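Hey,
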Amino acid sequence: MIGSFIRYMKSDLDRVYVADIEEIDIIVWLSHLRDGTNRWGRPYSSRTIETYFRDVLVFFNWLVAHKHLEENPMADLKSPKTEKPLIRVFTEDELMRLDAACDREPKGRSLTQDERKALAARDRAFLWLLLSTGIRISEACGLLFADIDWDMGMIFVRGKGSKERKVPFGKVARQHLVVSPVCY
């Protein structure tokens, strides 16, 4: 990254020495990144531009700390803002296909109809619990029946870093979590 920054400074702004680079040059470079495209012809993401900015900032901080420069031309610049990515929502068709994938076709070691039905019920309960709550798979694997508060519609989740929280679950997840005789 530093190499492409230096090349841009040399070729586009005629800055041969790092000591010649000024704050305005860095602003022009950031603008070039915002308007430019990467080697695949796609625009740079805001996250990539922020990463490049941080890399160059660290480079200049190092130059100042090791007395190669007297002052950092980036000292007064603020890091560019990054866009928050939107969460992709499943379409109705995708949800139906996920639900249908829970049904098992007989193959290999043949399961009885009741076994396939029980496994499909388990898989559906797991799927809809994940979709309804947004918890991690590892958190769902650690759940116990005692962690479910049926009256409040909440589950007690133990997550990463020993964090514990209560998470609500929806009507569809509740329907699939209710233990039916087929699960025994």
